[in-house]
Amino acid sequence: MSATPSAEAARRRTFAIISHPDAGKTTLTENLLLAGGAIRAAGAVRARGENRRTRSDWMKIERERGISVSASVMTFDHQGLMFNLLDTPGHEDFSEDTYRTLTAADAAVMVLDAAKGIEPQTLKLFEVCRLRDIPIVTFINKMDREAQDPFELLDEIASKLALDPSPLYWPAGSGGRFKGMLDLRSQKFLPFAKQREADDKHPDAIAFKGAAIASYLDADEVEELSDNAELAQGGLKPFDPQAFLEGHMTPVFFGSALRHFGVDQLLEGLGAYAPAPKTVPALRGGEETHVAPGDREVSGFVFKVQANMDPNHRDRIAFLRLTSGQFARGMKLKVQNTGRQLSVNAPIMFFASDRELAEEAFAGDVIGIPNHGVLRVGDSLSESGALRFAGLPNFAPEILQRVRVKDPLKAKHLKKALEGLAEEGVTQLFRPALGSDFIVGAVGQLQFEVMADRLANEYQLQVIFEPSPYAEARWLGGDKADVEDFVAKHRSAIGTDIDEQPVYLAKSSWDINYAADRYPKVRFERSKERA
């Protein structure tokens, strides 16, 4: 007999990892899985060969370029807790995927490069966390390389993020002088082994004040570490778990993900301090309500859809973040906006692209539901079909391009493939009212490269992207009569999105401002929640 939904939810820790590209996020993900006992060997991004490929980057283009362009989910059990790790794309062109993934996270690990500190993309992602009140744990990575002074890094966190940094450890040097770190709570020193073999562990922690410290630090280094640790403890606020949960404070960990140093301590910190799933606001039949993890009704929302995770099967998986109840395989769930009922007979627990059937799951867990176009990003599911969670917005794309297939006989296949990719929410697809071209919208250029790569590998379609006559897209809102009047008078600049919603395709932002002045009753919207 399973424990109650409340007790099971209480042992869940669902967290996302955010960072600027190249800060070491994917390597940290690998090593957290290693620390959690989920894998036996971590494959660094730059390693070659099928056995050494990283588990979280499963797309061909990710492995070739050593970047993450798609969010992935990994679940593992460690020391009585169930961790759901959400790995997000670091590249800014995929920030929408990251934004949606953060809606499913209860906490975030912010990875900083010790030499570079807070970089632009880190700042953007942090703002998203702040909007959603997600508590943040900081991991300062690459301490085994030349790094900024730790006090400067902490000052930067305080000034740029308006967060109180509270270090739980303090590093002894950096780069070639990096010797380990001091646990500021227990006063134990954790030695760093530079010439460590892949399977060897770093030496065990020792008492900082004991005689054994002489094996790792000389007298000057002991004095320097002691002075700096004292200064940090005297000058910075002590860690307050409540201030962390409220988003005012971040516990700071140091280490080297590549050398698997500091990773065990980070995982331990997440288990001790990261929040379990919380009560979330929802609408039931239009009335405001709250859904608690221990509620009897099973409910959740789709924050991501991914096609072709398994190239051998044309699969399409919806990622469902559970918010309440005890889910069991074979259960029937209803989609709130369509009323459609689904029998969830083959739910999946994820391990990047590996998977296994989920017999049961609880609030905080992420399960995959195989489906063929039934589920979309932003859908709310529950046993009654009456619950609706806050929608996940689509944002107006920054680049619009025309797309055509090299082989004209495959035009129908192109339509189906583009619709499939648009349903994942990674790119926008618009169909102009006049003409037969498809217009694809994306946040950045890399998305088009990934799209071309996926169309070639997953759908065997060779495509060409060409400049579009349009520069901006806005969804039209307002009273039906006003919108229809505008659409009728601007047919050449009107298109529809994948939901058949009207979209104004403008040649410039000046056109949008001009139209907005002339039609004050029509809203030209930069984002759209799925109805």
- Strand content is 25-35%
Shape: globular
What is the overall pLDDT average? 84
Number of domains: 3
Largest sheet: 8 strands, antiparallel
**Contiguous helical run count:** 13
Radius of gyration: 25 Å
Topology:
Blueprint: H1 5-10, E1 12-19, H2 25-35, H3 60-65, E2 72-78, E3 81-87, H4 95-102, E4 107-113, H5 120-131, E5 136-141, H6 150-161, E6 164-167, E7 169-172, E8 180-183, E9 188-191, E10 206-207, H7 219-235, H8 241-245, E11 249-254, H9 263-273, E12 280-284, E13 287-291, E14 299-307, E15 316-324, E16 326-328, E17 332-335, E18 341-343, E19 348-351, E20 354-357, E21 360-362, E22 366-370, E23 380-382, E24 387-388, E25 393-395, E26 399-405, H10 411-423, E27 428-432, E28 438-442, H11 445-459, E29 463-467, E30 472-477, H12 480-489, E31 494-496, E32 502-506, H13 509-518, E33 523-525, E34 527-529
Parallel strand pairs: 1-3, 1-4, 4-5, 5-11, 6-11
Antiparallel strand pairs: 2-3, 7-8, 8-9, 9-10, 12-13, 12-24, 14-15, 14-23, 15-22, 16-21, 17-18, 17-23, 19-20, 19-22, 25-34, 26-28, 26-29, 27-28, 27-31, 30-32, 30-33, 31-32
List keywords for this structure.
531 residues, alpha+beta, Rossmann fold, 3 domains, 8-stranded antiparallel β-sheet, 34 strands, 26% helix, 31% strand, globular
